[in-house]
Specification:
single chain, 98 residues, 1 helix
Length: 98
């Protein structure tokens, strides 16, 4: 997945040609809706540990684009065209703040 639009409190993500054909932003959205989850976005470095993770406060999906909204401003480590992975988290999950 890739970030194709970025604002202070939101990002738009689309499927990338490097993603497996069976993965789609629509599938992530539907699973999040069906299980009442939030969506986390992870940016990976060269290590097996993500360099940055953010947790959505809300999301919408339209025409192959997943738009994520965040309650806090995104940091300067997020950029257009960053390759990211998406995951689902319980709304009751309390992420560790670094």
């Amino acid at each position: 997945m890739r970030i194709v639009e970025l604002a202070e409190n939101s990002m738009m993500i689309m499927k990338d040609s490097e993603d497996p054909p069976w993965v789609s932003v629509g599938q992530v959205y539907r699973l999040a809706q069906d299980h009442d989850n939030i969506i986390s976005v992870a940016k990976w470095g060269s290590d097996i540990v993500p360099t940055s993770i953010v947790y959505s406060s809300d999301y919408i999906c339209t025409a192959g684009r997943l738009i994520l909204f965040f309650s806090e401003s995104l940091g300067s480590e997020w950029h257009l065209q960053d390759r990211v992975s998406l995951d689902l988290e319980s709304k009751y999950f309390k992420p560790y703040k670094q």
